[in-house]
Design brief:
Keywords: Capsid protein, Virion. This is Spore coat protein CotO. It holds the Pfam family Spore_coat_CotO. The protein is an alpha+beta fold. It has a five-stranded antiparallel β-sheet with strand order 4-3-2-1-5. The longest helix is centred in the middle third of the chain and has 9 residues.
């Protein structure tokens, strides 16, 4: 029995043989962080959960002051010697921090020396 599946071509057409393109894949890559070259102190700082909480109180004031005007104001939890205040820090001068309290819409002026810590709540 003959093989019924393959038959010889009826007409030979001369065609140019095209070479398949050679594809080279990427052999290396660069990551955004090079963990091997960082010293342990920088690794600990980079891996900390909240960089804002690791700042000192004066650095936190500077961070809030230098925020862009286009960003919404951050809600903060301000820990003082008298208690805690939830609100938005509007202005920081040399000795006084102006806060808008969200629970009761009013402004409060707090001296810097009674503020113990500032924690960010969100937008």
């Amino acid at each position: 029995m003959e093989d019924r599946r393959s038959k010889p071509p009826l007409l030979y057409i001369a065609q140019n043989q095209e070479a398949f393109p050679e594809v080279t894949s990427q052999s290396f890559y660069y990551s955004g962080q090079d963990d091997a070259k960082q010293d342990p102190a920088e690794q600990a700082k980079a891996s900390s959960r909240s960089r804002f909480q690791s700042l000192s109180l004066d650095e936190k004031f500077q961070y809030i002051l230098k925020m862009q005007e286009t960003l919404p104001k951050l809600k903060c939890k301000i820990l003082t010697k008298e208690g805690t205040i939830n609100g938005v820090i509007e202005d920081i001068s040399d000795e006084i921090v102006n806060v808008v309290v969200r629970d009761i819409p009013r402004r409060r002026a707090l001296p810097k020396d009674i503020i113990l810590d500032i924690q960010l709540i969100g937008f």
